[in-house]
Design a protein that fits this description.
5 strands, 5 helices, Rossmann fold, 43% helix, globular, five-stranded parallel beta sheet, alpha/beta, 126 residues
């Protein structure tokens, strides 16, 4: 992902959202934090192709379900799902709907690598 690109961050854990936003800004990304309970409303009318990073609450598929609703509504923007201990079914659904899955806790450069993959996909599509 080009460092000038913007990222939309919807993480229900406020402390994680703050630290993740801080770290991504240090890497040169423009980060806008969205209220997780209003993401769909907040991005519905956005024309920009900003990558959306959605955090899943532990032991739920809230984030995945939101990503799937966005896909069904026609959203083509890159989506990265952050999930704790995702099941095989969650991983398969994410893959089928072109949602990149990154497992929490975030270790090493897993998120950065996912952002690079979304950038490569965007370049291939253009």
């Amino acid at each position: 992902m080009d460092r000038r690109d913007s990222l939309l961050l919807a993480e229900p854990d406020e402390a994680l959202a703050a630290s993740l936003g801080f770290a991504l800004r240090l890497e040169g990304y423009q980060v806008e934090t969205l209220a997780p309970d209003r993401v769909e409303q907040q991005i519905r009318d956005r024309a920009d192709p900003a990558c959306l990073i959605i955090g899943d609450r532990p032991r739920t598929t809230d984030g995945l379900q939101m990503a799937l609703r966005l896909r069904r509504a026609g959203s083509l923007r890159p989506i990265i799902l952050l999930a704790t201990n995702p099941s095989r079914a969650t991983a398969e659904q994410a893959r089928r709907h072109d949602v990149l899955l990154v497992e929490k806790p975030l270790l090493g450069r897993s998120l950065e690598e996912a952002l690079q993959r979304t950038s490569a996909r965007s370049r291939e599509a253009s």
